[in-house]
Design brief:
The protein has a domain at about 35-85. The protein contains 15 helices and three strands. It has helices at about 20-30, 55-60, 65, 70, 75-80, 90-100, 105-115, 115-130, 130-145, 150-160, 165-180, 195-205, 210-215, 225-230, 240; strands at about 35-40, 50-55, 80-85. It has a three-stranded mixed sheet with strand order 2-1-3. Helix 7 crosses helix 9 and helix 8 (about 115-130) packs antiparallel against helix 9 (about 130-145). The longest helix is centred in the last third of the chain and has 15 residues, at about 165-180. The chain is globular. This is BTB domain-containing protein. It comes from Dissoconium aciculare CBS 342.82.
């Protein structure tokens, strides 16, 4: 007769029979340990009503909270278990906490309804705190929604990410098409000088727009969409689907003869 699972003593189970059971046991053991709530102060009334999230939950999605520096309590926030991120966008924190609890957000609907600002800031936020899956979900939505970016938002994207980040690729490529379509003037991009934008912009200007489009001034959005998606989804739920999607010549921006 099978043993009642509710009667299992996790502490006495030395060896798990299957990998999934071992994972369940490890999580249960972690939760039995002292798992302090982290207080997060966001918004004007944050000192009166902070958000409270278990440390293990944050560490499970964020390399910032899983880092040795945080676990070993090497700075004030880690020692006190409190975070007051005044420099962060409060709307992004609210979106992240919703995603953390529900683990799903319709980012594409957000982009189509409210524009790309919240998603761009979410990507930068996720870069700062090392939240890969949240970042990938927002990036994929930006690619799929084919958003346009103001010069100011482009600046935020470059200031909030590091060299080689897919968001920079996305923003610079879109700028190329918008300048070509005369939605933007090159002069509008002057404020991006020194952020690493123009080397990408000039490279894409020469490589991503097929010659026939240059001559006819007919520009198709995102010829590299599939490639960008591949680069974006390293830790996403969509990874298994996208990594097996073949890249066609049109998706790669090749100029058919």
């Amino acid at each position: 007769m099978d043993q009642d699972p509710s009667a299992l003593n996790i502490d006495e189970m030395a060896v798990a029979e299957t990998p999934i059971l071992e994972e369940i046991i490890n999580v249960a053991r972690t939760l039995k340990k002292h798992d302090r709530p982290i207080k997060i102060y966001i918004g004007e009334d944050s000192r009166l009503r902070p958000f409270s999230v278990q440390e293990s939950i944050l560490a499970g999605v964020s390399t910032y909270f899983a880092s040795d520096a945080w676990r070993e309590r090497t700075f004030k926030e880690a020692i006190n278990g409190e975070l007051e991120p005044k420099e962060d966008d409060s709307d992004v924190w609210h979106l992240f906490l919703h995603w953390l609890i529900k683990h799903q957000v319709d980012f594409i609907e957000l982009a189509n309804t409210y524009g790309p600002t919240l998603l761009v800031r979410s990507v930068c936020f996720a870069e700062k705190y090392g939240i890969l899956e949240f970042q990938n979900d927002a990036l994929i939505a930006l690619v799929e929604a084919e958003c346009d970016y103001s010069p100011e938002l482009m600046g935020e994207a470059f200031e909030g990410t590091t060299e080689g980040h897919p968001l920079r690729t996305l923003v610079a490529e879109r700028a190329v098409y918008n300048v070509a379509a005369r939605k933007l003037a090159v002069e509008d991009l002057a404020g991006l000088d020194g952020l690493g934008f123009f080397p990408l912009y000039l490279d894409f200007r020469e490589k991503l727009i097929p010659i026939k489009y240059k001559e006819s001034r007919k520009f198709e959005p995102y010829p590299h969409k599939a490639e960008i998606l591949h680069r974006v989804v390293r830790g996403s739920r969509l990874q298994s689907l996208l990594l097996h999607a073949p890249l066609s010549g049109d998706q790669l921006g090749t100029d058919a003869t």
